[in-house]
What we know:
Elements: E1 4-7, E2 10-13, E3 20-22, E4 27-28, H1 29-38, H2 40-47, E5 53-56, E6 66-68, E7 81-84, E8 91-94, H3 99-107, E9 110-114, E10 125-134, H4 140-156, E11 161-165, E12 171-180, H5 182-199, E13 204-205, E14 217-220, E15 230-231, E16 247-248, H6 250-254, H7 266-276, E17 290-291
Parallel strand pairs: 12-17, 13-14
Antiparallel strand pairs: 1-2, 3-4, 5-6, 5-9, 7-8, 9-15, 10-12, 10-14, 11-12, 11-16
Domain DNA ligase D polymerase: 28-279
InterPro entries: LigD_pol_dom, MtLigD_Pol-like, NHEJ_LigD
Protein name: ATP-dependent DNA ligase
Amino acid sequence: MTPITEVEGRRLALSNLEKVLYPATGFTKAEVLHYYATVADALLPHLRDRPLSFLRYPDGPGGQLFFAKNVPPGTPEWVTTAEVPRAEGPARMVLVQDLPSLMWAANLVTEFHTPQWVIQDPQEADRLVFDLDPGAPATVVECCEVALWLRERLAADGIEAYAKTSGSKGLHLLAAVRGASSERVTDYAKRLAVEAERTLPRLVVHRMTRSLRPGKVFVDWSQNAARKTTATPYTLRARAEPTVSAPVTWDEVEECGAEERLVFRAEDVMSRVQEYGDLLASLFEDGGAGAVP
């Protein structure tokens, strides 16, 4: 029988709680749900009002993975949904606005991916993002060097950047922005990626061509496009172990001398949230957004 639980007055059916989803560590679905419940206060502001794309892996990362944007069949009526404009026609997507809808979505076994805009104004970006992806033999260590250069370059334009791990191999840089369309933010991010390659030619490539990437850091500026999404802060990733896209301090980026230093698993992140709160909370401060040149 599927267990029924109540979360803030909403009844939820939670399935297959004992299933091992991360065989390398024995991490179960129950532990996935416990992780998301524990970090909910930090995670929910990053999900709220952003149409959600799901990367689902119901049998673990070694099983079938599929990406879904439309409202899944069987979605409870109390889960908020919204019509979202898309080039191929409008779609109805989920908004995770509260703890019950977070736990419902987590029960589907998902990575959470969100755009750089909120549903109230899909025409205006409120986030800028860079995805720093190392091409072997480069690692997150090289990503840290590039991230520090980008932080200073953004600061020169009055934009404050924050860092998080991708939960995979690299780093993400985030910044709050205002008064610009996704297209304009994308153009600006591309200009900075080109400038980074020109300044750090031994380290950086801004083009997606895979043959150019070995030993360098690909500065992916394209995720600022309105149709694109990025792994949400605090989401678990579909990797061999339950790694998390975890916010980090700039001190940690500066001191990144070994790849393992910037790998955080679910248990690490629960402890970090308890100790530090949300290291990205400043993204939500009034007046904290920078203007895109």
